[in-house]
């Protein structure tokens, strides 16, 4: 226990660093996209869609972005934000693997599998 | 237009601070505000609040990771229970009567709230576990954090892992079935059942919440429950608020956090029991 403690601490520090970086990148990217969309909406005063409609499929979102529709850009920002925690789980698996902490590689992989299954059930 | 956007950002900042400090996710603040004051349909309010939870989680975790307040192993390990719980919840929709679940979870919250009051009342006794739990050692869950309010390193041990797992399963079930932010149950599982100190419990709850919410968020995203004009300014405000909140939490004495936490728990417990009866 005592001999294991320092190694565990260092290992965790390295993993935390990687995960922190991933979260920061995810948050900055999604916030930037959301801000661009929101500014476009406020400046032009138009959502790019009739009435209260907004795009909810990838196809509609990307064709909307091609024509710089504010709502389409905003939806993409939200989607990136939603993906960030999932990315965090994926990166954790890799980090635990790199630290040869196989127990937690399995634990985290299991979590990812359950997560993927629930995506499909939704 | 611009007034609404600014108002949403301000609400987001406040909810983000509260959510990050308490480990609740902020949905509990945003949903009632959107339905009561903005008369938004409950469907859209829930859609927005799920985005809010994710924003709070990611925003606050950046600071909590850097300052090493949260317990990554505990989070990963307990996520097994929350994700299975959430999946079962989604599968059991329509089979399990939500009424009984509201009563069950309401009572659990009430019990935990009283437990927290008890902890508040015996001031001098340390609530830290001294037990050497075999499973905790095997999973290497014991850890330490630096408490900025007490200005010292606090080592802590984790116990009663089966109890924690069961409450976490319940937390996942509640979020999958009832669509409620299960932050309160996550904090309870760690703080009350596993005897983790309150600050790492709250920080770890914040981290875990993002994963649970992400699963249901995609559903809401594609079925059109997430309104961009509501969710975007809220999320941007939340990201700022969660960053501020995660700094505030660390310098606040744990006792104060508990004092804010208890009435919120009573409030959630009562509203759940009300829905059940």
Architecture overview:
The complex is a heterodimer of chains A (122) and B (277). With 122 residues, chain A is mostly helical. Chain A has helices at residues 4-44, 58-66, 70-98, 102-121. The longest helix of chain A has 41 residues, at 4-44. Chain A is elongated, with a radius of gyration of 20 Å. The mean pLDDT of chain A is 88. Chain B is mainly α and 277 residues long. Chain B has helices spanning 2-22, 27-36, 42-66, 72-92, 98-121, 134-138, 161-177, 183-193, 198-222, 228-251, 254-276, and strands spanning 143-147, 152-156. Chain B has a two-stranded antiparallel ribbon. Chains A and B meet through α1, α3 and α4 of A and α3, α4, α9 and α10 of B. Chain A: Keywords: Membrane, Transmembrane, Transmembrane helix. Chain A: This is Integral membrane protein. Chain A: It holds the Pfam family DUF1634. Chain A: It comes from Apilactobacillus kunkeei EFB6.
Mean pLDDT of chain B: 86
What is the CA-CA span between the terminal residues of chain B? 40 Å
**Global structural class of chain A:** mainly alpha
Quickly give the structural class of chain B: mainly alpha
Q: Output the helix-strand order of chain B.
A: HHHHHHEEHHHHH
H/E topology pattern of chain A: HHHH
Largest sheet of chain A: none
Whole-number tally of structural domains of chain B:
1
Biggest interface pair, counts: A-B, 53 and 54 residues
Which range best describes the helical content of chain A: under 10%, 10-25%, 25-40%, 40-55%, 55-70% or over 70%?
over 70%
Form type of chain B: globular
Q: Output the strand order for the largest sheet of chain B.
A: 1-2
Shape assignment of chain A: elongated
Rg value of chain A: 20 Å
Transmembrane segments (chain B): 7-38, 44-65, 77-96, 102-121, 161-185, 205-223, 230-249, 255-274
Subcellular location (chain B): Cell membrane
Keywords (chain B): Cell membrane, Membrane, Transmembrane, Transmembrane helix, Transport
Membrane topology (chain B): Multi-pass membrane protein
């Amino acid at each position: 226990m005592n001999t294991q403690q320092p190694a565990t601490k260092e290992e965790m520090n390295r993993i935390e660093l990687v995960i922190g970086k991933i979260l920061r990148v995810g948050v900055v990217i999604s916030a930037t996209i959301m801000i661009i969309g929101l500014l476009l909406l406020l400046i032009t005063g138009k959502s790019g869609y009739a009435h209260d409609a907004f795009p909810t499929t990838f196809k509609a979102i990307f064709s909307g972005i091609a024509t710089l529709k504010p709502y389409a850009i905003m939806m993409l920002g939200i989607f990136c934000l939603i993906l960030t925690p999932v990315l965090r789980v994926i990166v954790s698996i890799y980090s635990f693997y790199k630290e040869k902490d196989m127990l937690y590689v399995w634990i985290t992989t299991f979590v990812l599998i359950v997560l993927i299954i629930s995506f499909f059930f939704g | 237009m611009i007034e609404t956007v600014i108002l949403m950002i301000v609400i987001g900042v406040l909810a983000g601070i509260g959510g990050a400090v308490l480990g609740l996710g902020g949905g509990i603040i945003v949903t009632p505000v959107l339905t009561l004051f903005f008369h938004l349909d409950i469907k859209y309010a829930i859609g927005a609040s799920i985005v809010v939870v994710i924003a709070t989680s990611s925003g606050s975790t950046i600071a909590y990771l850097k300052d090493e307040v949260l317990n990554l192993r505990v989070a990963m390990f307990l996520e097994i229970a929350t994700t299975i719980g959430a999946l079962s919840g989604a599968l059991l929709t329509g089979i399990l009567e939500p009424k009984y679940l509201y009563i069950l979870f309401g009572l659990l919250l009430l019990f935990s709230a009283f437990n927290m009051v008890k902890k508040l009342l015996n001031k001098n006794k340390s609530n830290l576990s001294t037990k050497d739990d075999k499973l905790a050692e095997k999973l290497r869950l014991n850890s330490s954090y630096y408490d900025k309010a007490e200005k010292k390193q606090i080592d802590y041990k984790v116990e009663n892992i089966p109890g924690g797992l069961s409450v976490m399963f319940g937390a996942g079930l509640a979020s999958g079935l009832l669509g409620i932010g299960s932050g309160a149950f996550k904090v309870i599982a760690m703080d009350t059942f596993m005897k983790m100190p309150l600050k790492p419990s709250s920080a770890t709850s914040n981290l875990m919440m993002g994963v649970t919410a992400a699963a249901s968020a995609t559903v809401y995203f594609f079925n059109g429950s997430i309104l961009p004009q509501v969710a975007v300014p809220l999320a941007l405000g939340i990201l700022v608020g969660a960053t501020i909140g995660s700094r505030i939490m660390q310098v606040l004495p744990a006792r104060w956090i508990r004092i804010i936490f208890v009435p919120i728990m009573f409030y959630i417990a009562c509203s759940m029991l009300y829905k059940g009866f």
